[in-house]
Amino acid sequence: MTLSGSGGGPPERSVLPRAALLLVGLLVALALLVARQSDDSGPPSGSSATAGSAPSGGSCAASAALAPPCGAWWGAYVPPGPNGLAASVTAFEQRIGRRLDLVYTYHDMGTGTDGQLMDADEQSLGRTRLLMLSWESEVWGGSGSGGSTADRPLGWQRIASGAYDATVIDPQAARIKAYGKPVLLAFDQEMDDRTPADGSPADYVAAYRHLHDRFQQLGVTNVRWVWTVTGYLPRAAQMAASYPGDAYVDWIGYDQYNYYLCKSVPTWQSFADTQLPSYIWLRQHISATKPLLIAEYGTAADPSQPQRQQQWYEQVPQVVRQQLPGVRAVVQWDSSVPGPDCDLSVDSPAASAGYAAAGRDPYFHQPLP
């Protein structure tokens, strides 16, 4: 999904229709099913370790890229409420009965509070959790006495040129450097939904590489770089053309949902149905070895069968463990998107019960760095 709006977290978000995804995804999954059997992101060849168990050395400590070798991080985007992000995350954790491993937040590239990376709430949460920041190359609009102001894209070409180094990039790089602990940083997640408004895929690659190289020049060594696409397979060519290269990417993310009635998808899709096609494509066409993360996921409700949400989430541990071995983090989108029947949160009793059950699985309880 793509951000737009303002106000301390991602405001309203536009969503791609996914009705065509089921057919395309099933064809891809059938064609490439054998490929995932050879996924290289698990234990090395010849190791006796299996997914969810300690590697041959006996350690489940996270890798240098922050990937847990014995399971996956349990994460969420939680909208900040009137008492701030930290209070909202704490309330969410109390409701699901566990602490999150990873908290996902969003920032624009403005010079106001929305553009301040590592704010006080994030630093507080980061004491006992990993943080993943999505940095959006626009200045979010706001609502003042004159009404709403449109979001303003900065443009990938100008970012790549260094035009925003002094005013935007360098100050925020300094804040992350001062924080000290490792941070996951995604630049313009779902860039395949931003062309041509923000530029071409080549422009995106240039901007991404410029940010990466600028951080290196400034001595920021605690960032792990995340490249996140929609995973929407009709945009495969755009996604492939937007990859900055293995030397610039530590994690690969994708965002897939079971929208069902929210986006008039005629068939209910299981968690595996939503995730496997994109996963297989990324492994085949982008990287066979980089750790993957499901950067956003969730399901709408089926009003005629309320328990479907619970069952959907209860499937997550087994599917990730057995069918998505390269996925090392899963991040729930605990919010809604524009449209009727578009609540993708786990607020309902059925969704909350299923999500809490999935979060108790040992595969999602790994030692934090």
Question: Your description of this structure?
Answer:
This protein has 369 residues and is of the alpha/beta class. The protein has a single domain, classed as TIM Barrel, CATH 3.20.20.80. It has eleven helices and 14 strands. The chain has an eight-stranded parallel β-barrel with strand order 3-4-5-10-11-12-13-14. α1 crosses α8 and α9 runs parallel beside α11. The longest helix has 17 residues. It is globular, with a radius of gyration of 19 Å. 46% of the residues are buried. The N terminus is likely disordered.
Quote the CATH topology: TIM Barrel
Are there runs of 5+ residues with pLDDT below 50, and where? 2-9, 11-52, 143-147
Distance between the termini: 29 Å
Q: Give the helix proportion (percent range).
A: 25-40%
Strand segment count? 14
- Rg to the nearest angstrom? 19 Å
Mean pLDDT over all positions: 87
Largest sheet: 8 strands, parallel, barrel
Number of domains: 1
- Proper CATH architecture: Alpha-Beta Barrel
Q: Which term fits the overall shape?
A: globular
Q: What class, by secondary structure content?
A: alpha/beta
Task: Tell me the CATH superfamily.
Answer: Glycosidases
Q: Class in CATH?
A: Alpha Beta
Number of helices: 11
